[in-house]
Design a protein that fits this description.
This protein is of the alpha+beta class. It has 19 helices and 8 strands. It is 46% helix and 9% strand.
Length: 499
């Protein structure tokens, strides 16, 4: 690649931009559909309260200007609309400056959401989308991408993969003895339709999976900085690995976005062979664009010091933002693997008083395991934030602090926004009188059990996660000011057996 422009990568850049626009679109639609229940005025962690505790400098966001539900929804749907336009190629028809400004819109809007999203947006792929979206601003129209931006995207891809590899190598011993995938397909946050079969692969194949993961994350990323065709092969290996991960479980848009970031490395030759499209006409970026990109490269270099130190540290942290704008971050996932899957099952009853024979009815979640006979659904690349946090809550009740009690409080009043996050509400006509949560151990059924019962899961009760609580007679149907359960009904957490 020439230092100033990359004519051999024009079509790759277009494919990357379209793929990034798809991820943006999914992220904004998920925000529009979920944020009112999670972050709205009557939500579990209201934005209006949060922005009163942090300054704009600490957490840059448009929600410091306004934080109403209408504003929350407007930001999300505006982002979705702009993302749809970018997907259709609207930006390429604009002058260079306007094109870059249009790409800056979804970046600024999504950064605004993430920076006030609190627990609900504390996932590595949220920050990854912000960082990738920031770099995409500087690509410009089709056929005129500055080479330095493509190298910065490779640097981002390297940190994503290499950081994930190092966190595993330094983490759980099962990564070093190649046994982690004996457990992970079953205990991962959100199993998918094929996870049962992946779990039942022979142990030697699980070892191959882990070894291939180490190779892809610790050795292959070095090839990104080699000449072609080595870089292309390295990116191709990463893409195949990410497709394998997509097949084995639901990891939101992490895999899809990682694939998107790898696409520009492939070059025009690959895409002209795969797509019925010709590379765009090459237009050399003007001097001012080069000057901006040189400044961007210097900024990324400066901000990369902290992530590099983190990579080299024996106390490496994963999924960490080092600056308020989340421009250059640290990544990594699953340094530790849970051996046993536990699930929090939320139940309610409309009985006036609790007795030994009280009938409890279970709430159904859209993605996480519940009914043992329900096959794990395909959710990714969509992100179900409540379902993911329920997985963390099952690991330890401390992960439920700050949001689980407000969640239960909203179930006690049949809050419409909260119920839309669920797959099944067992109390459609009137709210339950009591809600409780129980802790279960789940495991995939064996092949024999699956043939005999038709169930995908076998579960056993472990104990109480949240003791039964009820709505006081004076509690309004809008649980606004308290944000949680009625006064005097603090959650009685039960740790369960070695959670």
């Amino acid at each position: 690649m020439h230092w100033s422009s990359a004519p051999d990568y024009g079509l790759s850049v277009v494919v990357f931009q379209r793929a990034l626009a798809v991820v943006y679109l999914l992220a904004f639609v998920a925000a529009a559909r979920q944020n009112r229940a999670l972050l709205g005025t009557d939500g579990m962690q209201p934005v209006d309260r949060y922005v009163r505790t942090v300054s704009f400098r600490q957490s840059p966001s448009l929600f410091h200007l306004r934080s109403s539900d209408a504003w929350l929804l407007g930001v999300a749907w505006t982002g979705a609309l702009v993302s749809a336009g970018l997907l259709l190629g609207v930006a390429d028809a604009l002058p260079r400056g306007a094109c870059m400004a249009l790409w800056a819109v979804p970046w600024a809007l999504y950064l605004s959401i993430v920076n006030v999203g609190q627990t609900w947006y504390a996932f590595g792929w949220e920050t990854l989308l912000v960082e990738a979206g920031f770099l995409a601003i500087f690509l410009g129209p089709a056929g005129s991408a500055p080479t330095l931006v493509l190298w910065l995207l490779r640097w981002l891809l390297f940190r994503v993969e290499f950081g994930a590899g190092l966190i595993k190598l330094r983490g759980d011993a099962c990564w070093r003895d190649l046994t982690c995938l004996r457990y992970h397909h079953e205990s991962q946050p959100m199993p998918g339709p094929l996870s049962w079969w992946f779990h039942h692969l022979p142990m030697p194949l699980h070892r191959v999976e882990v070894a291939a993961n180490h190779l892809t994350q610790l050795v292959v990323p070095l090839g990104l900085f080699a000449p072609q065709p080595v870089a292309r092969v390295a990116a191709g290996v990463m893409i195949v690995t990410q497709l394998w991960l997509m097949a084995s479980g639901n990891f939101s848009w992490l895999n899809a976005l990682t694939i998107a970031i790898a696409l520009p490395v492939l070059g025009n030759d690959v895409w002209t062979a795969l797509l019925p499209a010709a590379p765009p006409d090459v237009v050399a970026p003007p001097t001012w664009h080069h000057a901006v990109v040189i400044g961007l490269t210097a900024l990324v270099g400066l901000l990369s010091v902290a992530p590099v130190r983190n990579l080299l540290s024996p106390r490496q942290r994963m999924n960490t933002a080092h600056d308020p704008l989340r421009l250059v971050n640290s990544y990594g996932a699953f340094g530790n693997i849970t051996r046993v899957r536990r699930e929090v099952v939320v139940e309610g009853t409309d009985a006036d008083a609790i007795a030994p024979d009280t009938e409890w009815r279970e709430y159904g979640f859209r993605g996480k395991p519940g009914d043992p006979h329900r096959r794990p659904p395909q959710v990714a690349p969509y992100h179900l934030r409540l379902d993911w946090l329920m997985w963390f809550a099952a690991i330890s009740p401390r992960y439920a602090s700050g949001w689980f009690a407000p969640f239960v409080a909203r179930l006690l009043v049949n809050d419409p926004a909260t119920l839309r996050l669920l797959r099944h509400n067992p109390f459609p006509d009137r709210p339950p009188t009591y809600v409780r949560a129980r802790l279960y151990e789940y495991r995939f059924t064996t092949r024999a059990e699956r043939r005999e019962t038709g169930a995908w899961w076998h579960r056993e009760a472990l104990g109480t996660f949240l003791a039964p609580v009820r709505r006081a007679a004076s509690t309004p149907t809008s649980v606004r000011d308290g944000g949680g359960l009625p006064r005097g009904q603090r959650p009685e957490w039960s740790e369960g057996p070695a959670v």
